[in-house]
Amino acid sequence: MLKKQGALSLLVSLFLLIFLFSTLAMADTQVNVVGLFNNRALVIINGGAPKNMRAGQTSNGVKLISANSSAATFVIEGRRQVLKMGQAASVGGGSISAELGKPNSPVHLYANPQGHYYGNLNVNGTSLKYVIDSGATSVAFSSKDAKRAKINYKNGQKINMSTANGIVAAFLVTLNTLKIGTIVLNNVKATVIEGDSPPVVLLGMSAQTRLNMKQENSVLTLTKKY
Q1: What is the distance between the terminal CA atoms of the chain, rounded to a whole angstrom?
Q2: CATH 2.40.70.10 intervals, the chain
Q3: 97-102: long-range contacts at Cβ-Cβ below 8 A with a sequence spacing of 24 or more?
Q4: What is the dotted CATH code of the domain comprising 107-224?
């Protein structure tokens, strides 16, 4: 009788192990891109902490093939997938799906070696690189970037600004919509400076005051206040 009970217990244990392994095999691997750099990507895998991956590196069944400021190429559970900033992919059970992050979900930024936080924003369908700048009173564009983003800045209020290159013309404008990753802000005050400076958009206080900003180690998390 004891032998039969032992055999039955062994069969139940084997069944549970088989069920467990089959469940794990069917579980999706979820990858969310929260930062893009040259040959690096900041990703969240299966809801874990943000992880800095370099091209060629593999983590939890996810391999980063290549990356730049526009997109990253992964092999996820043996399947090739290209993801842009704020996009997520779920791979498992022989299928793959990718979708944009939910509107106004948190945005994660990773500090560069100098401690600055860069990301990509969107104005009028144009993607531009930005840097967090608490010293700028407003979001600031060069006229070069403003033209790319089709901002009619010359309809704004003209002022003069003192820069390292002397006094230059600038224009005060209001952006109908400013998208910072998945975060959408409306009616944002901005300044457009004639010329090629600043080389990237300065995400100044006119945007920052509408965000909660939490720094943990080298990751800065932005969430929308209003």
Answers
A1: 69
A2: 107-224
A3: 100/182, 101/32, 101/181, 101/182, 102/182
A4: 2.40.70.10
Q: Which residues pair with 31 in a beta bridge?
A: 45, 89
In the β-sheet with 219-224, what is the strand arrangement from edge to edge? 107-110, 219-224, 211-216
**Which residues lie below 8 Å from residue 69, measured CB to CB, with a gap of 6+?**
36, 37, 38, 120, 129
pTM passes above 0.85: no
State how far the Cα of 100 lies from the Cα of 122, in Å rounded to an integer. Answer: 14
Q: Please tell me what DSSP assigns to residue 112.
A: -
What's the whole-number mean pLDDT along residues 187-199?
Answer: 96
Question: Which residue ranges does the chain devote to CATH 2.30.30?
Answer: 29-100
Asked whether the bond before 198 is cis by omega within 30 degrees of 0, the reply is yes
List, for residues 23-33, the tens digit of each pLDDT value.
Answer: 334 457 888 88
**What's residue 92's pLDDT?**
63
Cα–Cα distance measured from residue 135 to residue 66, given in angstroms and rounded to the nearest whole number: 34
Percent of the chain with pLDDT over 70: 83
**Does residue 117 contact residue 131 with C-beta atoms inside 8 Å?**
yes
Domain 29-100 fold is SH3 type barrels. (2.30.30)
| Beta-bridge partners for 37 | 40
Q: What is the mean pLDDT of the chain?
A: 83
Give, in degrees to the nearest 5, the angle at Cα 110 between 28 and 189. Answer: 110
